[in-house]
Every structure is written in C-alpha cells, then in structure tokens.
C-alpha cells in the first residue's frame, strides 16, 4: 500500500526565516518519485520540486530544497528565507514506478508572519 | 501554452441534476486524472486514465463517470448530483515517466444545493 503522511496541519514562520514541512511515506515500490505542490489561497496547484528515490543528491529549486532521508522514508520540504507570498497550503505526493497513481498527503498550511 | 484547461470554473447545481466537467490538455500526456478537494482537505482521486479508451476508478468514484475517447480530452460526468458532491474538482495530466509531475487545471468549484 502507498501512503503519504503530513503530520503538521498548520505552521507559522517569521519572514526571512527558514521552515521545514514534514512528509513521510510508505511504499513497496523499489523505485518512486516524491513531489511537493503549493496551493495558494487562489486555489491553483503549483509544482515546486521533485525527488527520485535513486537520486544521490537532495533536490533543490531556488529557495526550495528537499531533505530526502530514504531509510527513514521522509521527504521534508525546506523553504529558505520565507516570504509573505509563501503563505499557502503545501502538499507532498508520491508516485510509484509500478503504479499510475499519485498519492497525496493531507497538506500543511503555512503562514508567514511579517 | 494552454496546458490543462477545465470548464466551467464555477457551477451551481440543484440536487438530482447532471452535468459534465470538461478537461482538455495540449501536452500529449497519456495519463490524466480527476481529483476532488473538499474544504480544508487534501486531494482524493476520482478516476484516472492511462490512455485513450482506458479508464480506471480511484478512491471515490461513486456518483461519477468518465470517458477518454482522445488523448486530449477527459470529461467527468456527474449523474444525479448530491450535496456531498459539493467540492472543487481538479483535472490533471502527467507524462508517462516516473519523473513526470502532475500538471493541474485551475479547478472547477461545484456547489450542489
């Protein structure tokens, strides 16, 4: 069975500080991909970053980085130098090599405080 | 680039009415999906398709139907609308590779009264 768990319903961070959003996963697939999406209050889903299970290095995209710990089955999103525009819902998702579906966590609501 | 286009963006239905949410993508993706998102919740998969002529049920298919006659189009049909189907619906597509992310439409907000 495939499962994504996000245990932080809400997070607060001071502007310009870094924040880590937690994501753990469970899969029996030997190969899989992990994704993070941002959903601002306007509602659209914005792709942020991807990590492959066999990637040797943690993925980075600008201020976003993914802290991938395969043995612990965690794929935490790190946002550096938070900005007010980072306030949004953040979803972690996984896709297995043998399946066709994306599995989503329940999301974390991030609020950046000026 | 248009990407994934959903219509309508907003719709109010009466209980028992039917409607179709349209979804089209211009990226030649084989995989297409329909999700619903209830207020304050995550995404639940309704139906998905891995290519023209092939569809499969997701987590919450009851009350919905889909078809995939072309690579581009993946309409979602709501039959006999119920208040429990009040939600935001997202169509998404993905290339047929492990590294391919989901590309989402802008969402369709449906209210059933």
Task: Please characterize this protein's 3D structure.
- The complex is a heterodimer of chains A (114) and B (113).
- Chain A is mainly beta and 114 residues long.
- Helix content of chain A is 0%, strand content 54%.
- Chain A has strands at 3-5, 10-14, 19-21, 24-26, 32-39, 46-52, 60-61, 64-69, 74-79, 88-96, 102-104, 108-113.
- In chain A, strands 2, 5, 6, 10, 11 and 12 form a 6-stranded mixed sheet that branches.
- In chain A, a hairpin with a 6-residue loop joins β5 (32-39) and β6.
- The radius of gyration of chain A is 14 Å and the shape is globular.
- The model of chain A has no long low-confidence stretch (mean pLDDT 94).
- Chain B is mainly β and 113 residues long.
- Chain B is built from no helices and 11 strands.
- In chain B, strands 2, 4, 5, 6, 9, 10 and 11 form a 7-stranded mixed sheet that branches.
- In chain B, a hairpin with a 2-residue loop joins β5 and β6.
- Chain B is globular.
- The N and C termini of chain B lie far apart (36 Å).
- Chains A and B meet through β5, β6 and β10 of A and β5, β9 and β10 of B.
Topology:
The complex is a heterodimer of chains A (114) and B (113).
Chain A: E1 3-5, E2 10-14, E3 19-21, E4 24-26, E5 32-39, E6 46-52, E7 60-61, E8 64-69, E9 74-79, E10 88-96, E11 102-104, E12 108-113
Parallel strand pairs in A: 2-12
Antiparallel strand pairs in A: 1-4, 3-9, 5-6, 5-10, 7-8, 8-9, 10-11, 10-12
Chain B: E1 4-7, E2 10-13, E3 19-25, E4 31-37, E5 43-51, E6 54-57, E7 64-66, E8 76-78, E9 87-94, E10 103-104, E11 108-112
Parallel strand pairs in B: 2-11
Antiparallel strand pairs in B: 1-3, 3-8, 4-5, 4-9, 5-6, 7-8, 9-10, 9-11
